[in-house]
Specification:
With 186 residues, this protein is mainly alpha-helical. It has eleven helices and two strands; from the N terminus they run H-H-E-E-H-H-H-H-H-H-H-H-H. It has three domains: 42 residues; 39 residues, no CATH class; 85 residues, Hemocyanin, N-terminal domain. A two-stranded antiparallel sheet has the order 1-2. A hairpin with a 5-residue loop joins strand 1 and strand 2.
Length: 186
């Protein structure tokens, strides 16, 4: 609602600034029309939907279906409520069980800590960890976090904030430096 009203007001102001030879009477004529435009559009229904992303904020989106799932900022995985699934066309695209953020964090921490659950095998080119400072497990953990960031940014940052002391070495130096340098070999 405010978004469309603001766009209309900006259009009026741009029209006001675009013509160089505006007299004072023209300005007096245009300004009341801006106020009327704001009042008229305030009474109209919005043409977009509010999608609940968190308790404290909401996101406006026109994306539906797979486009929501491919957007890491909007995708909450199994955390989408039934109403969100209906409104955004996600019914049938996600498992039927709805998981809380805490359940998703627990599941992804298990994936992060247990090599058997991640099914990712990466090896350091130089097998001597004293020269690079990283191990195969560091690369695997980096890959798990990188995949999570590509899928669900909210979950990624919550997991990172909650476990920063443990994950800092994986998401920053030396692991990311190694990955940047030898990405073509991974």
């Amino acid at each position: 609602m405010a978004c469309s009203r603001t766009r209309g007001i900006v259009r009026c102001l741009v029209g006001l600034r675009s013509s160089q030879s505006q007299s004072a009477s023209d300005v007096e004529r245009i300004v009341p029309s801006i106020v009327q435009l704001g009042r008229r559009q305030a009474s109209e229904q919005p043409s977009f939907e509010f999608v609940r992303c968190d308790v404290s904020d909401s996101t406006v989106t026109k994306l539906r279906g797979m486009r929501v799932l491919h957007d890491p900022c909007l995708n909450k995985g199994t955390g989408h409520t039934l109403t969100e699934r209906e409104r955004m066309g996600l019914r049938g695209l996600l498992p039927p069980k709805i998981s809380s953020l805490e359940e998703q964090i627990e599941r992804n921490m298990e994936r992060y800590l247990d090599p058997a659950k991640s099914n990712i095998k990466m090896t350091v080119g130089n097998k001597d960890p004293s020269t690079t400072g990283i191990t195969d497990d560091d690369l695997r953990k980096w890959s798990v976090l990188s995949d999570l960031q590509d899928r669900n940014e909210t979950l990624f940052y919550r997991l990172l904030v909650d476990n920063f002391a443990e994950m800092a070495r994986v998401v920053y130096t030396p692991t990311v430096g190694y990955v940047c340098r030898y990405y073509h070999k991974l």
